[in-house]
Amino acid sequence: MILLALFLVGCEQNEIENTEEKNPLVVDEEVLSVKTLKTSEENLRFVAGWLDDMNIAYVDHHDAEDRLQVFNLKTGGIHTIYTDASIISEVLIHRSKKQLLVKTSDTSTEANMTVIDTEGRVLDELTVDSSELEIQWNDAEASKLLISAFREDWSYQVFLYDMSEKSLEPIELTDPFPQWMGEDQLVYLEDTTIVKESLQTSERSELVTEVNRFHASSEQLVVEIPDEEQTRFTVLDANGEEKHSWQAEHPSETMEDVEFTDDDNIIMSTNLSSDDQDGMSTMVQVIDGEAIKRYDPEVEGGLLNCSPDGGTCLVGYRMDTLIDLETGGTTQWLQLNEVEPVIETAEAITEE
Prior knowledge:
There is one protein chain. Helix content is 6%, strand content 54%. By secondary structure, it is mostly beta strands. Strand 5 and strand 6 form a beta hairpin. InterPro entries: 6-blade_b-propeller_TolB-like, YqgU_beta-prop. It comes from Sporosarcina newyorkensis. This is YqgU-like 6-bladed beta-propeller domain-containing protein.
């Protein structure tokens, strides 16, 4: 009986220790075990973002090819959906999570864009003469792209590409970094003024002045406005009407990245550039247009990518850290070391 009791106690202790070694992730109020993706700095290109609430897309290099892969946080399964002999320099995931844009380049003066579905089937291809591209995908209409093509002297041309029409049309803008607002309207900076312009009618209107930077979605935008003492952040609707405003907590706090989870909720990362916190990032959540919840994930870099359900975000320069927005807890899902990357499994994207 004594030996049996000691055996049971030992089993219970092992079970507790094994549980503590797993990374917790809260999804739909259930605590799930998060698998860790282990690869090396040499093989990993970058993390692209969420495909759904459990699968993350990333790019690595293997056997002279770049691979667009999907990692399942629950099962640890890896599924390759696209490969290319050229270097994959960027992957955009459309807000619908049904299409991905893969950018590659064979020369320094040309860029290739390939649009695929989540199974890797090619939907469209386009080549643009450019030494550097900035691409904005329309959240409301997946067939439309804004493409800013830069030349070596940093002169530029902005194009509207319509996949359904296979048309590439130049647009004359004073700002090379326009953003979409709805299906056919653009917002961009002229000096420090945000201008909204219709692609159909060319009608222009000024939304707000004295702006440092901004992020836009289909129906709203977040702007950073300098103040006498500390920066002010403001959420505006599509007509420029203020929905919510708050002051930065730190004098050096500036907007880094923004996720619009829905019409009334946003997640924003900010950068702290003071001497004692240089490069560190903080996060602000605006809920129902009013409540503000702050997080300090203690990671460097303000990149931000949130799951479709808006409950979990990837943060950090590498987006290697998960943060649960309900609890503020963080866990590292991506581990970079000098070991061989995990062996690819035959599993496709595993659904809950």
